[in-house]
Sequence to fold (135 residues):
Amino acid sequence: MNIVWNDKKQARLDALRAAELAGTLDEASKAELTALIESLEAEERERLAPALAQMQAEQAALRQQVQESEAANEQLVILAAQQEQLLADARRLLRDLQRRHQAIQEAYHHLTGEPLKGDHWPVPEASPDLMLLHP
Fold:
């Protein structure tokens, strides 16, 4: 539909609306008013269609980005939990190795009466997750 709204049509629409408000519209004028309003709305739909289509496409793209971000966030939560579990496992392993090392030291000392030489086992009590093992 290729309707061109112009000043003449706008003036006629204004006059018909004024008559409608005054209650002086006859049936033919009511039909003309309805036709003008439909014509104006059709032209506005046609004129706005490209912008609306672009907005819908942008909205769809944003929805896709949100879905991708939510999926990535879910994966990050899983990775964070795995990392926390890894750290907890490492702490348990370190404590076990420290106990075993202590047992070896005590057994060696019990058998020889001397401390185990060449012992470089770091045992920082304040931060076990920062310890490095040195055999």
User: Anything to note?
Assistant: The radius of gyration is 41 Å. Helices lie at 7-22, 27-112. Residues 7-114 form one domain.
